[in-house]
Design goal:
single chain; alpha+beta; Alpha-Beta Plaits; 2 domains; four-stranded antiparallel beta sheet; about 30% helix; about 10% strand; globular; nucleus; pre-mRNA binding
Length: about 250
């Protein structure tokens, strides 16, 4: 069964910021209903551990992933109505929603944050907040922390801008990683700021992306045809069986 990732009663008063609203939200360690003066780049006290936190829940009629599980702070455990696991290639999500069941918008936000756009498949994340990109092991460090959430196709580091771009094999993996690693630290006191990446202007990258989309579409068609073929096979077998009985 899925374990409890956090106990709301275990959060000490010292970890709660000054009350500026009416209700304390354990997910964000801040008060809601007041002003929004809190620092958006405060390191979170929680982080998901896929091996330890994954498990079955009460999600019998839902294929959506628990958003708070991804953030490492779901206190419902096995009683959660959403899935406590990584999204896989076998999952199907409505194109206008992400793997957590949140609605996408027509256009991206100006700062490329948020759920994303339903007009395009985006598997690449912008990783900001890296002040130590001169670290010789930064490539390995990024790989170590982000490969936990899915298959990484490419990591591009811009050393002069202290940021990186990580491309996953599946968009759902990128969606999960974005929530899991936002406001986390991987080097020293750095606090990650993760957003959706803009279109890469490099012609080679665009061609690779186009090829990947075509392969993904072809695989989807093959899967649908295979499912239909299985159904037809069962139908033929049933007909032959009825003929033998006569």
């Amino acid at each position: 069964p899925a374990r409890l990732q956090v106990d709301p009663e275990s959060i000490p008063d010292d970890d709660k910021p000054p009350q500026t609203g009416s209700v304390f939200n354990v997910w964000y360690l801040k008060w809601s209903g007041g002003d929004s003066s809190s620092n958006p780049y405060t390191k979170l006290n929680f982080r998901v551990n896929i091996k330890k936190d994954s498990g079955y829940t009460k999600a019998k009629h839902s294929n959506y992933i628990c958003l708070f599980f991804a953030r490492g702070c779901c206190y419902l455990g096995k009683n959660c109505p959403y899935l406590h696991r990584l999204p896989t290639s076998e999952d199907y999500f409505i194109p206008t929603q992400d793997c957590f069941g949140r609605d996408k918008t027509s256009e991206y936000k100006d700062d490329m944050s948020g759920v994303g756009s339903f007009k395009k498949i985006n598997k690449t994340l912008y990783i900001g907040g890296l002040t130590k990109t001169n670290n010789s092991n930064i490539q390995n460090i990024l790989t170590k922390h982000f490969e936990e959430f899915g298959n990484i196709e490419k990591i591009k580091i811009l050393f002069n801008k202290n940021c990186a771009f990580i491309t996953y094999k599946l968009e759902y993996q990128a969606q999960f990683a974005k929530e899991a690693m936002q406001n986390q630290s991987i080097v020293g006191d750095d606090i990650l700021n993760i957003k959706w990446a803009n279109e890469d202007p490099d012609p080679n990258s665009q061609k690779q992306k186009q090829n990947a989309l075509e392969d993904e579409a072809l695989n989807t068609v093959k899967k649908l045809l295979n499912d239909k073929s299985k159904d037809n096979k069962v139908t033929v077998q049933e007909v032959e069986s009825e003929g033998e009985e006569e």
